[in-house]
Design brief:
two-stranded antiparallel ribbon, 331 residues, mainly alpha
Length: 331
């Protein structure tokens, strides 16, 4: 008997007159908004200018969407280019199908262009955006729930996902809600990065590398639960191999970066420093160092200051008395 399960929506799209409102698209849009909002707050806290994050996101987001779609189409080409399939469906991004690996890779290219135009180091901007990106992934995974896709193996757990659609080879039943597992994992990774960044003052791209490494760990075991069609290499799903390679690259970067460039950037946006709006840690240190010099200057100024009129009155009185005495003797 089915005592408890997570129901799937009866449909993933609502029609507002002739306008279709797709749950998958809404999840992506909300995720992007959260990433930019949180990234902006973190960027300002690091000493950047308000609005810089959104300006760079104008480049990063479109590149990321294209990269995510390209990765999905290339790795699942049979869904669009095999016999009986319509290749035009490869452009229907609203129907689902974004590969996070391609989204991050090509999104980084767009971010690099945006950062270069603003004279900003890409690693510092990536550190500020890292938690927001992974929170956006957590929200975006709910798009798979709307589309009844990317679920796991059959299960009778009380949090099983009930699939009701039978299109594209689906078999109705109860399955592991891998979309939910990955969503929760991403939330945990986001808070991990925020904590580690505050605790260890991560800089030069290390907060972003931590996000990538931690996400890959979760993606590896979640990928094992999925039952959708996928390419296999040496008996393992392609995305598992991708997670292993990306994890190793992230760890290597963490180690080498910590050795070669320890600490955190003092200035992340030169324009903010020039305008006087920057609030970097380096500025705070310089102000603290300047306090003793200011105190010494004040003391020396006090020492060189002339005596007041009141202090001069006794001496003037003595001189007047001496003059009167001298006149009395002469008379």
């Amino acid at each position: 008997m089915e005592f408890a399960y997570i129901p799937s929506p009866s449909q993933g799209v609502l029609h507002l007159g002739p306008i279709p409102l797709r749950g998958y698209a809404f999840c992506i849009i909300i995720g992007v908004f959260v990433a930019v909002w949180l990234g902006n707050k973190r960027w300002i806290a690091r000493g950047g200018l308000p609005g810089t994050t959104a300006d760079i996101a104008v480049w990063a987001v479109p590149f990321g969407l294209v990269g995510g779609r390209l990765y999905h189409v290339i790795t699942d080409y049979e869904l669009y280019f095999s016999e009986g399939r319509d290749w035009v469906d490869a452009f229907k991004i609203w129907e689902g199908g974004l590969g996070i690996w391609g989204a991050i890779a090509l999104g980084a290219v767009g971010a690099w262009i945006g950062c270069r135009r603003r004279g900003i180091p890409l690693p510092a901007w990536a550190d500020a955006l890292a938690p927001g990106i992974v929170f956006a992934q957590a929200i975006g995974r709910w798009g798979n729930w709307f589309n009844q896709e990317l679920y796991g193996k059959e299960t009778d757990l009380p949090w099983a996902l009930k699939i009701t659609s039978s299109t594209d080879g689906r078999v109705p039943g109860l399955y592991h809600p891998t979309f939910l597992y990955e969503s929760l994992w991403c939330v945990g990774v986001g808070f991990l990065v925020i904590w580690a960044d505050r605790r260890f003052k991560l800089g030069h791209g290390r907060a972003f590398a931590l996000y990538v490494a931690a996400y890959c760990v979760g993606r590896f075991w979640i990928e094992y639960l999925r039952v959708d069609e996928a390419h296999h290499v040496l008996g393992m799903r392609l995305n598992n191999w991708t997670a292993i390679v990306v994890f190793l690259l992230a760890v290597v970067y963490l180690v080498l970066s910590a050795r070669m460039r320890p600490g955190r950037e003092e200035v992340v946006e030169p324009a903010a420093v020039a305008s006087g709006e920057g609030d970097s840690e380096g500025d705070a240190v310089d102000l603290d160092k300047a306090e003793p010099a200011d105190t010494e200057s004040a003391e020396s100024a006090d020492a060189e200051a002339p005596e007041s009129d009141e202090d001069a009155e006794p001496s003037e009185s003595k001189e007047s008395a001496a003059d009167e005495a001298e006149s009395a003797k002469k008379s």
